[in-house]
Amino acid sequence: MSSQPTNGVGSDAVLSEILSTLKRMQVDHASLAANVESLSSRVETQSTLSALRSQPRGSVRDSPSLDPMELGKAASSPSTDSPFSSSKPPPSPTARRSSVTSRIILTTYPGQSGIDPIPLDWGNSDPAKRGPVIVSRLQHTIRRRNAIGAHGGSYSIYNALAVASNNLDLEHKPDFTNTEPAANIGPFPAWGSKSKIVAMDPYGHLAPWLYKDLMLGQNIDIRPTIAVTKAHMKIPELEQSVQAGRLKPDGKICINAQGELAVTKFAVEPVWYLPGVADRFGIDEASLRRALFEYTGGSFPELITRPDIKIFLPPIGGLTVYCFGDPAKMSDPNVKLALRVHDECNGSDVFGSDICTCRPYLIFGIEEAVKEAQNGGSGVVIYFRKEGRALGEVTKYLVYNARKRGLDKASEYFQRTENIAGVKDMRFQALMPDILHWLGITKIDRMLSMSNMKHDAIVQQGIPIHERVLSQMR
Ligand SMILES: [Zn+2]
């Protein structure tokens, strides 16, 4: 009890100390907000800057206000002593147009004045009723957004750098002429399911063409999240396969004696329907949103403030589908399908590092997929950007070191990974089968992987696997 203030004078002193601290914090907060605000005013056009400067001199310190408009005016006044303020024009005013307002919109709320999201009914089989995924924060689009995050997955950060460094004009409008998919796909029944596809936009390859009216008529920024192209690919090991007689050139799928392959490729960026993603993991949507908010450094406050928005474009890598043979055969139940689902291992896949056997497995998958296509079926390899069990290369190399300096056994790998990262594996295959549903795959005749996690995730999604093929390591 002796540590408590025992008389009225002591309590008053403590109280007034608290009050004055609070007051200081308010003022600090206001000037911090003003500084942040002034950062954005610097990148305004010259005319906007002049307009803002002509405002009456600010009085941030006298009357703290958190109204960003008021703060913006005050902060851009030349009289302010903010370290971020500058009366100099931006380095390249012509690269900047009025696509960003002077206000930093930290977050929005449902029903807020001017907030008018374009309706989006995930799982509706009519793309017009389903509606486009809109995530852009450009001037004409920001109030119509129905998704959180940004296009490009992890590359969204480079986009931000390009804007910050004046290398990208915000007014730039993509010209999608001749960029249409190089192969037709679907539509399949799963495209109209709320639960079968939750981690990609089934209309992502057609978005600019399906929603052209909105783009042109209302100046809404809509971008594709899937692209489809055709290419040739050449892998040294497949030339050896031809030489060894395992692979026979047919001029169509395996083009020549060098083992060159014809392939149709689908690049897919992640688009998450949050209720569906939560469902896959057996958790509630609120817990998922809270965790995504907290562990991205609070980057996406609308995960918390906009429960009405259900779509999130996460800053992570996507996937690529490599399809051998006619893409239409992937969904044909009358022909055989061979499939490998491969998770990225850059060191082995690209650089041939001998510390693991990922590349030989990948090559085996490609060779078997090509053979299946040559036999009149379909061969598919799906490559997921989930480096080092989705823990990344830094953690991976730490584990390698720990393994080499301890007992270098495969069984140790899991334990050492868990010791370092807290989990054995973060690839969580639960969302992986979405791409199979999207491709119209209803069964897998030959699964070119022995992973139980992948097998179980696919079977749980109602896609039977008839045979699991063990890679023949060569
Ligand atoms: Zn590997």
TrEMBL record:
Keyword Nucleotide-binding tagged: yes
Keywords, in A-Z order: GTP-binding, Hydrolase, Nucleotide-binding
SUPFAM superfamilies for this protein: RibA-like
Feature: compositional bias, Low complexity: 74-87
One Pfam family in the UniProt entry: GTP_cyclohydro2
Start and end residues of each GTP cyclohydrolase N-terminal domain: 103-294
Highest taxon listed in the record's lineage: Eukaryota
InterPro entries: GTP_CH_N, GTP_cyclohydro_II, RibA, RibA-like_sf
Residues annotated as domain GTP cyclohydrolase II: 334-469
Molecular functions per Gene Ontology: GTP binding; GTP cyclohydrolase II activity
Gene3D superfamilies listed in its UniProt record: GTP cyclohydrolase II (3.40.50.10990)
Chain positions covered by the region annotation Disordered: 37-100
Protein's UniProt keywords contain Nucleotide-binding: yes
UniProt feature, compositional bias: Polar residues: 37-57
GO terms (BP aspect): riboflavin biosynthetic process
Xref: NCBIfam families: PRK07198.1
Sequence similarity: Belongs to the GTP cyclohydrolase II family.
Protein name, UniProt field: Putative GTP cyclohydrolase URC1
Gene source species: Cyphellophora attinorum
